[in-house]
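Our consortium's second objective concerns turning raw sequence data into structural hypotheses that experimental partners can test. To show how far this objective has progressed, the report includes one record in full. It was chosen at random from the queue rather than selected for favorable results. The single chain below, 440 residues long, was entered without modification.
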Amino acid sequence: MNTPRRSFHILLLLLSLALPVVSPAAGQDQQPATPVAITIPECEPRGGLPNFFAKLEAGGPVRIAYLGGSITEAAGWRVLSREWFARQYPRAKVDEIRATMSGTGAEFGACRLQNHVLRHSPDLVFVEFAVNGAGATDKRAIRSVEGIVRQVRRHNPLAEVCLVFTLSKGMIKELQQNRSPKVVENMKKVADHYGVPTIDFGPGVVRLLDAGRLVFSGKAPAADAPADGPIVFSVDGTHPLDAGHRLYLDAIARSVPALRAAGKAGPHALPAPLDADNWENASMVAVDAPGVVRSAGWQKIEPPDGTEKRQRISQYFSGVWAASTPGETLEFTFDGVGFGLSGFRGPATGLFRVTVDDLPSLTGTFFDTYSHAGRVSHKAWLYPQDLPRGKHRVKIEFLAEPPDRAQIVRNAGGSYKAPATAPSTVLQIAAILLAGSLAE
């Protein structure tokens, strides 16, 4: 019998019994019947962030880039961490590069990295894509995240990268079983290969949940709620409330000593890639760029209503192009392994046909369960198949028939209410996404 191990588990059990237990209200998270000791590391420093801390300690200035989705877009852990570093190193001027856009993952992140992050010369890039997914497949997940790391290192060998893993309700069960979600495991493979540190926000949050000290999704507490009550992490099971964002900051603060101690300042070497078809050469191309052929009916428009305020569209794209007549086309040739479109979802979002080389055509749409009436928002559409390296001809054609909106919503577990008058369809595109570059 392993006596130390037995004693360790007995100690954990006694501690959990000593903590106050919260009885969640109906619809809130339930604790597991038998909590498992979570040994997943919160921080894996690997090569650390030596150049970042050397510059902080020398008095800066330093620039921290935040590349991620809506969790990072909120004025939460992003703002809190930047302010925390500024307080810890008052001699250094700490600036932020905000490169966040809700509902986007690592593939889109790899394509827009040069435009939205690297041209601003970051010293550290926090990469947050665990909740939105790092790719459609395991292979794509590794290729896209690896592409981000390689782009940063190639741009500036002194720049640092740190992968951070946020969490949503669907990840809790795996963490309670002491297993990392698959998306996290894929990102860690890249981190291991390049010596990139990771901070996992999940274990600390789930330990509090298992101890009965946190409700993961519940009603936001009132302003006069008791200070010693349970922490309500979120309302929707994904986006943290202020208290949840502070837990994310706490994880960063706890990780800093290890991140500061690891590694040695100096240029980072760039090893051979894990996957030769990674998205290192990803790019984002304007619809009116030389080499993109548009049919006559496309019109340049202002960003769709509401997107400017919510997603700062004009800061990320040079323009938006719209087609409202079926048969309008976009055509281009690129050299690479994948592509996509940066467009907009809404109740009038239409259907398009995609033809690549001589492959069978497929249909796509930006419409999804979030295409609410009165709300239009940005969405990236990625061609689902990995293509062999080389040149590929692409044709996008706007179709007359609308997407099957009801079926799309039902497939996502929602309930679709058809409008009294079916809206005319439109196709709105802000950019072409390439795992590669335009070719003649």
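The partners drew two points from this record. The mean pLDDT is 87. The chain has 13 helices and 18 strands. Both points have been shared with the crystallography group to help prioritize constructs.
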